[in-house]
Amino acid sequence: MITGMHPMRHFTFLTSITILLLLSPLVAKATEQQLLNKLDAFLYGASINDASVHNTFWHEDLVYTSSGGTRFGKAELMKGVRETGPIVKTEVTTWFSSQDVKVRLYDHLAIVNFKLVAKTDESEKYYLNSGTFVRKNEQWQAVNWQATKAAD
């Protein structure tokens, strides 16, 4: 027993710790699912070039490294999205989706690695993407992004 602690308080303390340890995997699984849902919603929104989806997905301090070897921030990315404008669903030429998604959680930080699939009527291209997400006010946003063309 912890010195100077009343036996009932000791029991309550140990019970609280036990409950936290038991709930921890459930919280992690729920957080992982939240990130997976966010990624899926983003990829759909990126397919139709939805500026509001981009705006909520990317953190203000974003550093984006493209598969073409250029690096830019959120302001430049959003400028390109707004200039292109939204795409009507029936006119989308490339649909984005993900495969082999892996999520690693570290308190208020998450690393999401996945294979991006860019599918057109004629082909499928693959990219290996890595995103670093930060959580602020219970919202996850990508603060760092790396896109690399996958080897054939």
Automatic annotation (TrEMBL):
DUF4440 domain sequence ranges: 49-141
Top-rank lineage group of the source organism: Bacteria
Taxonomy of the source species: Bacteria, Pseudomonadati, Pseudomonadota, Gammaproteobacteria, Alteromonadales
InterPro entries reported in the protein's UniProt record: DUF4440 (IPR027843), NTF2-like_dom_sf (IPR032710)
SUPFAM superfamilies: NTF2-like
Protein's name according to its UniProt entry: DUF4440 domain-containing protein
Gene3D superfamilies: 3.10.450.50
